[in-house]
Amino acid sequence: MIRVLLADDEELIRQALAALLGLEGDIEVVAQAGEGRAALEAARAHRPDVAVVDLEMPPPGGIELAAELGRALPSCAVVILTGHGRPGHLRRALDAGARGFLAKGAPGGALADVIRRVRAGARYVDPALAADALTLPPCPLTARELETLRLAGYGSPVTVIARRTHLAPGTVRNHLSACVQKLGALDRADAVRIAREAGWL
Questions:
Q1: Taking the CB of the first residue and of the last residue of the chain, which one, N or C, has fewer CB atoms within 10 A?
Q2: Mean pLDDT along residues 167-172
């Protein structure tokens, strides 16, 4: 049996996936979680072979969770599910150690097939996202610029971003100005929008 953990903050989707996978003779859903922290705890407790996690859920989100599971439970393969994935999300997910990346709109039997593939050591990437990722230019922002832009996207003022990043407020302003310039944005909010749409945040 392939032991699976399901993590999605939408209970209806999580239960539907569990019911769908329950029809498979070789797959057993051993744990479910509605947010990232609970998923990590459940993975440590149940030691699944595969974790199927939502891209966007209460922290840590799917990409961060994939990285944390890779450190805490290296034998667990991670499949990220998304309703609105971007090519940048795909790159970040693979960099974080995810073995699969699947759109929630995929055919019903696709998830079980992907679970089997990643359990066997293969990778699976949604073909449309893979094609888009090949044409996406690399992110022009540095890691520090992305960090400050991400915090700005939460509505944090410069002084709060400075405290969280251990930078001077002037340095934070410089990073945010660089983000606006590099992305050809109108302002910080537009820079956040552009970066999110590309999947860099």
A1: N
A2: 96
The predicted-structure confidence for 73-130, as pLDDT tens digits, reads as follows: 999 999 999 887 777 788 889 889 999 999 888 888 899 999 999 999 999 998 877 7
Burial 149-158 (b: 16+ CB within 10 A, else e): bbbbbeebeb
Contact present, 100 and 114 (Cβ < 8 Å) = yes
15 pLDDT band, cuts 50/70/90, is very high
- Long-range contacts, stretch 56-59, CB < 8 angstroms, 24+ apart: 56/82, 57/7, 57/8, 57/9, 58/9, 58/34, 59/35
Question: What string of DSSP letters covers 70-101?
Answer: HHH-TT-EEEEEESS--HHHHHHHHHTT-SEE
100-103 β-sheet, strand order: 27-33, 2-7, 50-54, 77-82, 100-103, 124-125
Please give the helix or strand (H or E) that residue 31 lies within, else none: strand 27-33
